[in-house]
Write a structure and sequence with these properties.
Helix content: 25-40%
Strand content: 25-35%
Radius of gyration: 14 Å
Distance between the termini: 12 Å
Shape: globular
CATH class: Alpha Beta
Length: 135
């Protein structure tokens, strides 16, 4: 069983990726852009070690509950607190109604590069991280 880097484990829980070739890439807009912004915010919050923001603003209600509810920030800190120089690179985005999947490549100092999928849901008017596809 492969082990995901702590950055992604913390979310059990980023611009414009549209799947085109480099020459014809167009900036993402609408829902794909909003989804990408949420994933980018995860990277920023992790870099800043702002685990409260991850729990309160970026995780869905269900994901926050699974990550410890009221103890979420403390548990995320214990899982991802030693992550250094995290980078989340979106590879593809798929949006279907109020659900989205972002295929990502994550790296952090001292950890192996890994590809995984982050699932998001539209909740209270914004995109929230619901889970990793590998969960």
């Amino acid at each position: 069983m492969r082990r995901a880097p702590a950055l992604l484990l913390a979310t059990a829980a980023i611009a414009g990726c549209d799947g085109g070739s480099e020459g014809d890439a167009k900036p993402a807009g609408g829902a794909p852009k909003e989804v990408t912004e949420t994933v980018a915010a995860l990277q920023t919050a992790t870099q800043a070690r702002d685990f409260r923001r991850i729990c309160d603003e970026l995780l869905s209600r269900d994901a926050k509950k699974r990550a410890g509810g009221g103890d979420c920030a403390q548990l995320v800190r214990s899982t991802a607190g030693d992550v250094r120089r995290p980078k989340i690179t979106p590879l593809s985005i798929r949006v279907r109604g109020d659900r989205a999947e972002v295929r990502v490549r994550t790296t952090a100092r001292g950890q192996s590069e890994i590809e995984d999928t982050i699932r998001l849901v539209r909740e209270a008017g914004s995109w929230r991280i619901a889970a990793l596809a590998s969960e």
